[in-house]
What does this fold into?
Amino acid sequence: MRKPRWWAELSLIGLVYAAYSCGRLLVRGDEASAVGHGLTILRLQELLGIDVERPLNRLFTDVPALGIPADFAYASLHYLVTPAVLVWLFRRRPAHYRAARTWLMVSTLLGLVGFTLLPTCPPRLLDPVYGFTDTMAQFSAYGWWGGEASAPRGLGGMTNQYAAMPSLHVGWALWCGVMLWRYGRTPAAKALGVAYPLLTTLVVMGTANHYLLDAVAGAAVMGAGLLLTPYALRLAVRVRGTAEAPPVVSGGCETSTGERIPGQRSAPTSADDTSAASR
It folds into this structure.
């Protein structure tokens, strides 16, 4: 298979990410339904005894040495580590790059479907009576973000704060972890492949940006994307083959030696007539 061209890959990734970002803005759910979905998730977790967000959020709020680095991680690593792993795969593991890139893109588009069907209010936007503190708002003086998720100050309107289910922070981190574990050749790379998605899961819950079930859904979306990747690759091959196939001028008809057009032979020469008469 032909090696991907860097400029084509950059254009494709940029196009998918632009579609994803615009889609997040276009599918903003109303506040009432988003809050309702968030409370439903929280109550389900309480029923199951897995509502671990509150103690983590309290710890991050009370200990700035944990909360501030967690806010920096939430606001930046999502956008730095994933492209870095993509570039590393493109340069160092080109045989695996196309499948890995397709897996990431398919899963991202599935996540957009989740945002559309289930707008969800994150814990930090719930009424304070539920016991959550928005650490990014509390520690906003230390970073470039404001009180509206990880968006830079003044650009809060450019993000959909109810795009919380599934957590693609966790989903993308899981993808990065799998890539580092499978294709990294050093123990450090493999250790990072395990630590990064686990750390991201703690960060998204400790900063009150996601519920545990958001993180679980993020992992599930990546699993579904992995299952759909072979089909997406086959479709891409068919589309590429159709686009690159040269036109068949004869419409599939073949001519034999001496034929000007199919089914019409050239008139015999005098030498041919003499030969035929002597037989």
Notes: Residues 247-279 have pLDDT under 50 and may be disordered. The chain has ten helices and two strands.
